[in-house]
Amino acid sequence: MIATDSGLEPLDPAYVADVLSRPPFVQIPGVCNVRDLGSYPTATPDVVTKPGYAYRSAELSGITEEGVRKMVSLGILTVFDLRSDPEMRKYSSPIPTIEGVEIVPTPVFKSEDYSPEKLAKRFELYATGTTEAFMILYSQILEHGGPAFGTILRHVRDKPNSPFMFHCTAGKDRTGIIAAILLKLAGVDNHFISQDYSLTRVGREPDRAKVLGRLLKEPMFAANSEAAMRMLTSRYETMRAFFNLLEEKYGGVETYVKAYTELTDEDLKIIRSNLVVSTKSRM
Q1: CA proximity to 232, closest of 81, 10, 76
Q2: From the centroid of its chain, how far is CA 135?
Q3: Long-range contacts (CB closer than 8 Å, 24 or more residues apart) made by 121-126
């Protein structure tokens, strides 16, 4: 991706198709922005994040029968949905019924956080597209997301051999924060986590028209499609700023997780072990 990319203009379809055809992207028909969080190097030599275990994506409401078969073939039998009920109603994107797959509602925000007033304030921040605005929003996600994130982390602690997926609507902000927490706990460098976050720029392109269409129905964006697109940016430097926020305001990832999810040092040790694998053992 070109360094000067504004994140607002459509990307070349051939480029998008090429990137989406290669790891870490995974093709699940009817689901956008699917990535495997495995194979990232960690601070420990010859240890990487476990492939085929933790997946991130956008919403699943449009999954096809072929997509269901692909999910099941990947062993993904548990899905954590970070969206709230008002959000699903607003966008007519209910939780799908997928035979053999447990979809666990794990909303980051409570229903009252979707009042017109609070939603307008959130959209107003997103519309600026500035790193400072995203940090306000990401702090809100951290403040509200403890119970949801704790549910996902307990799955990692208790079910190391049970692949799972987590998602919000676009698979960018709430999804990006818990993905960053997981990768950070596994010992992945901030650079690689920020790169993963920025891949949503490409991952969301197939759903660009759908997502933009939804946003343009909002009064704030109706006459300003550029502001709507700024809401969808996922810049590398935004995630780098998030790590500064996590460190300065919350004392780092482990301190945050223990304070907001009530997990212990022993839990985190198990979670870290369950998120990684030795490359030597796979040779």
Answers
A1: 10
A2: 16
A3: 123/218, 123/220, 123/221, 123/231, 124/220, 126/230, 126/231
104 or 91, which is more confident?
104
CA distance 47 to 69: 31
For residues 194 and 180, what is the distance between their CA atoms, to the nearest angstrom? Answer: 8
Question: ∠ CA(186), CA(164), CA(11), 5° rounding?
Answer: 85
Q: What secondary structure does DSSP assign to the chain, as a single string?
A: --TT--S-SPPPHHHHHHHHTSTTB--BTTB-S-EE--S-BBSSTTEEEPTTTEEEES--TT--HHHHHHHHHTT--EEEE---HHHHHHTT-PPPP-TT-EEEE--SS-GGGGSHHHHHHHHHHHHH--HHHHHHHHHHHHHHHHHHHHHHHHHHHH-TTS-EEEE-SSSSSHHHHHHHHHHHHHTB-HHHHHHHHHTHHHHTGGGHHHHHHHHTTSTTTTT-HHHHHHHT---HHHHHHHHHHHHHHHSSHHHHHHHHH---HHHHHHHHHHHEEESGGG-
Instruction: Determine which of 15-24, 96-105, 120-129, 186-195 has the lowest per-residue pLDDT on average.
Output: 120-129
CA–CA gap between residue 184 and residue 254 (Å, rounded): 9
Tell me, what's the pLDDT at 1?
A: 44
Model pTM score:
0.94
Asked whether 203 and 33 are in contact (CB, 8 A), the reply is yes
Q: What are phi and psi of 83, to 5 degrees?
A: -80, 165
Q: Are 142 and 159 in contact (CB under 8 A)?
A: no
